[in-house]
User: Fold this.
Amino acid sequence: MDTTITKKNTGSPLADKIRPKSLDDVIGQEHLIGEGKFLRKLIENDNFPSFILWGPPGVGKTSIAEIIFSKTSHNYLKFPAVTSSIVDVKKALKESEERFKTFTQKTIVFIDEIHRFNKAQQDAFLPYIENGSVILIGATTTNPYFEVISALSSRLKIFKLNPLTNDDIKKIIQKALKDEYLNAVTLSDDALEFIVTTSSGDARIALNTLEIAVKSVEKEDNKNIDAKKLEEILGKRYLKYDKNADEHYAVISAFIKSLRGSDPNAAVYWLSRMLEAGEEPRFIARRMIIAASEDVGLADPWALMTAVSAAQALEFVGLPEAKFALYQAAIHIACAPKSNSVGKSMTKSADDVNSKEQISVPLHLQNQSYSQAKNYGVGVNYKYPHNFPENFIPQQYLPDNLLDEVYYTPSENGFEEKIKTRLQKRWPKKYGKKE
Assistant:
């Protein structure tokens, strides 16, 4: 179903022109500003502490700050971190303190990209936050626990904003289509999908793409915009990839099977296919963490660490920079020796837990911290491994009815070959070399 829009007047960028005017207009971030949520109550009561809005680009940090400015009874100032000097900051803070003393009116100071402020600039705020003359609101795309000095961050409430979903971006575009355009323009469904999937959860990117597309056809007779035309305008190919349909599941399946099949070339191809089509990168990172344990396991214990580190890098620096970490993890997992022994041990032990009799824990393994434990034989025969050579002594650890069970059988791949040798030495009856 095509959407027809009419443009009224262009002056400021579209992203600024349709910026939300109230909390009800904000799309996304319901966990913070939904009805009855904590931050919403603070804003509605015009009574809030200093805080930081932390989240990816284009998710509503500045919009929320602007709504606060429009509703508050406090004085307010805006500081762009890139261009504000320490002299500017100190002067404004001193004036804010004088205003507070004279009129008992606090000043909200908004700092966009607060992570760009150096230590001296951040230190300057401390006495004014302490005496109550200034309420600091910061916005940042990077982790404030790393980028904001501890003396300041300890005095701030940190609100984490979530990436916008594809549905959120679609709602924002549809809102813009209703309000903003002169000259009748028709945006096809595939063009809408193109804008949504190439925005990577950034509303500003989506709105800028829409604005460029509309401007490109303003003087043309044919004002229909489809995905093909967007490709021509932006020089980017539209990739068919519906995250809720078969293509999504087909591509992620191909990616996982390429990792499992030790083909790094196929793995990075499918990874590129997903990222270029706008797949949620956290979903990809989660799948790689699973693959690192399920398909690599102890054959290369560092594969899991690489996958987890990639997921953390994604949270810390965001896209596009975190792509390097995602590709590194994919290549590591694909090239690693493979073993599913961890998964087999998990399945077999869980089956026995659910199907076999649950007899008591052997007495020597039970907790002996209570005073009468030894009278019942609890812990009496336990041998402390660190008192023996190589910190090991054979003794019973499984219940009596499971003494002969073997749940973990290491492969001979990668690091598990060393594990197998160690187990053969320690538990020869279970792991002894078979003739």
In short: The mean pLDDT is 84. The longest strand covers residues 134-140. Residues 86-103 form the longest helix (18 residues). The chain is about 50% helix and 10% strand.
